[in-house]
Design a protein that fits this description.
mainly alpha; single chain; about 80% helix
């Protein structure tokens, strides 16, 4: 029951992460927003997620998961309702931050929870958890698109918000693992984690992993329309293919590939990324471009589950705090590399998205080699 409740929680985080982008035209019309103002809204969300990722670890280690997950769901509920019904831009900004705050906490806490309750196959179970994030990310745009002519976006978003509140109430009824720390916050021990070489190697792998996911999600539509002469509609369809690739691969990691050695998983993942970048960079036929994005999604699927599995195995006594450190560094990578990609696109051209992808792949391979030297876990 705990496992499936975590899957439901991250499903709603996946829905939350795509909600704002899906209703941008409606928000533009409602508030009369410019593109710059919309960009500011998109900036608030990752800061909220970053804050939630920072605080969930120490809180879960000290007080456990039940209250934390419930409050996170309430925060997301307020975010959903505010996005649906707020009448002023300042209230909307606050609600988007609460949206990200609760989502970041749920994202990190459910991952740490799965690691805690999985004595074996942490990576495989985290992969299965990741399937539900992908399903949520695909579901929200589909629901909004399918029901847009029957209900207003406010009604749809509000109903999803109340469903999230229901999940928060359900968490209060479950019996979660006991807190790892019985008294006080272990500040000294937490600070020592920041200096831990193995944790930093994993965190900086996730720095580039998260950045890779970010540039694909944010820049591929522009790359396809500008460099490949693909229409905007078909560019968005192609982007969804990468999410499908990630979901399919994580489903395989959680089932058929469950007992496969991690070294073999990394070989498959990096080969998929390499071929995907080749197809995306040099393919001119739409089908090849979609194949490239599917392979990139599949290649990125293993990164977070397996690396977080390593974190869960190495830092059992302070797993929440260790996960917080990893997520904060990972999200920082997403923000920094995406900003850098914007500068590169403006100065030398969007076609260098592929160059940035290859550079990140090369760094990730090196970091994985260093990490595997210190790991003794044979299976995913």
């Amino acid at each position: 029951m705990i496992f499936w409740s975590a899957c439901v929680g991250i499903l709603f985080f996946g829905m939350a992460i795509t909600t704002l982008g899906s209703i941008v035209p409606d928000l533009k019309n409602k508030f009369g927003l410019s593109d710059i103002s919309i960009g500011a809204l998109f900036t608030i969300l990752p800061f909220g997620i970053l804050a939630g990722s920072l605080f969930f670890g120490p809180i879960s280690d000290r007080f456990g998961y039940r209250i934390l997950l419930s409050i996170a769901c309430i925060s997301m509920f307020l975010g959903f309702e505010g996005i649906a019904f707020s009448s002023s831009l300042s209230v909307l900004n606050i609600c988007i931050f609460l949206f990200g705050l609760g989502g970041g906490a749920i994202n990190g806490a459910t991952s740490a929870l799965i690691a805690d309750i999985s004595p074996e196959n942490k990576g495989a179970n985290l992969s299965f958890l990741g399937v539900f994030f992908g399903l949520g990310a695909l579901t929200m745009p589909f629901i909004l698109g399918f029901l847009q002519y029957r209900f207003s976006y406010q009604i749809i978003v509000s109903i999803v918000g109340f469903a999230t509140l229901g999940v928060g109430i359900f968490y209060l009824l479950l019996h979660f693992p006991a807190p790892k720390q019985s008294a006080g916050f272990l500040v000294k021990e937490g600070l020592l984690l920041i200096k831990n070489r193995n944790l930093l190697l994993i965190a900086f792998f996730l720095f580039f992993q998260s950045a890779f996911e970010g540039i694909i999600n944010n820049w591929v539509p522009t790359f396809l329309t500008t460099s490949k002469n693909v229409s905007q509609q078909y560019a968005l369809y192609a982007l969804s293919v990468s999410v499908v690739g990630m979901v399919v691969m994580r489903l395989l990691l959680g089932s058929i590939f469950r007992g496969l050695k991690a070294k073999n998983i990394w070989l498959i993942s990096f080969a998929s990324l390499f071929l995907g970048l080749i197809f995306l960079g040099f393919g001119e036929i739409y089908v090849l471009l979609c194949c490239g994005l599917f392979l990139i999604g599949a290649g990125l699927a293993a990164g977070f589950p397996i690396m977080l599995g390593y974190v869960g195995n190495r830092f059992k006594e302070l797993s929440g705090t260790a996960f917080s450190i990893a997520f904060v560094i990972a999200l920082s990578g997403n923000m920094i590399i995406n900003y850098t990609m914007g500068i590169i696109a403006q100065r030398v051209g969007i076609q260098h998205l592929i160059t940035v992808g290859f550079v990140q792949l090369f760094i990730m391979i090196i970091l994985t080699g260093l990490i595997l030297r210190g790991e003794k876990f044979a299976a995913v």
